[in-house]
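Sample entry (179 residues):
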Amino acid sequence: MRAGYLIERQLDLILAALTPANRLICRVMLHTGLRISDVVELPRETIKTRFVITEKKTGKRRRVTLPQELVSEILDSSKGSAWAFPSPREPQRHRTRQAVWKDIKRAQRAFRISVNAAPHSMRKVYAVELMHKYGDIERVRRALNHDHYDTTYLYALADQLPPPRPRRKKRVDKSRKLP
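Predicted structure, serialized as tokens:
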């Protein structure tokens, strides 16, 4: 199932219900459009208002900017760890993307949000906001590091696309007898 686009009210509810560390991760994703795997694996020493990251999925380099307030929050919350987002159980390791995903799913269920919320939803919100702000698909494509415009359109126009239809369950024909 694909991650859905969250409207502002849904996003606010989910962010409010997340643990502080996972909320901080989602805020970084909303400011940068980075994928969850790239955010949770950020070394603490990398966190500045401007830095360059090599995306794990694509291997492409990307320049990222964060507001100073967010940088300060990340550095304050990660003191004593090599990671910007340390694991709560094992501070020598980074937080996992699965832990963030589970927390988002918990928040989705708590508020009975029908959209398939996931960490990747933050990337779609980022793309839609860029498209609204600049109205330039090329700028959105470069910000997301996409190779193809068709992929970028799915993100940038996610707020205008109809919600996906629920999948129909396959019916089992019980009248057929097995040999």
